[in-house]
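Fresh eyes needed here. Have a critical look at this protein's tokenised backbone.
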Amino acid sequence: MHFLRPGPVLTDPLEPYAEVDRVRPDGRCWVMAHMVGGLDGSAAIGGRVAELSTAPDAQLFRLMRALADVVLVGAETVRREGYGPVQLPPERVAARLAAGRPATPPLAVVTRSLDLDWSSRAFTAAPAGSRTLVITCQQADPGRLTQARAAADVLLAGQGRVDPGLALAMLADRGCRVVLCEGGPTWLGELVAAGLLDELCLTVSPMMGGDPLPVSISPPGGPLVPFALRHVLGDGDTLFLRYERGTA
């Protein structure tokens, strides 16, 4: 055990994350998750994450999306947080365009029920080059599936439920090499249990007393999956931990 000593000040909080090599020789997606939790493990306050997030965390949350080819999120999180299309600061957009990438990554919503507001900004305000994706399953309600196809690009990943492995394979086929998962806890737990989460970027917010909702919810019978700590950053009382799947 040892003390962590303060290091150099970072002028760009995204820099340590941007330096990570996330290229897979086999063409599979690299799946990273960015989550925030309170000191008591809570992942929300009053059903939403916004009040749990500190100013440094909110800044990193916006910047982290610049690393992604697609931003993956569960439908319940989209509903609760009022998601719109992904937006990036102008300098991050310019850097992506200079690298031959789309200006912004598309949003991809995972949902079996297709119970979504198709008139919301998540669908109507998405730019033409980054149209929102909806990932659902073959047994989704046919009427809602027709609505979804009118508002978004639809991927059918599984029969009675969304299969995480198939969903990621379909995203890889679309050229998505870095997938950024922003929750919710149930979908994150599915990815972990399937051995598909490569990296967890966890913000520890200096608060207690939130909802009894953890950062990740493992499905019944899900295995324990070890992760290795790669870096620790701090800004005021907020901690930023980066883990990769492997031997802890």
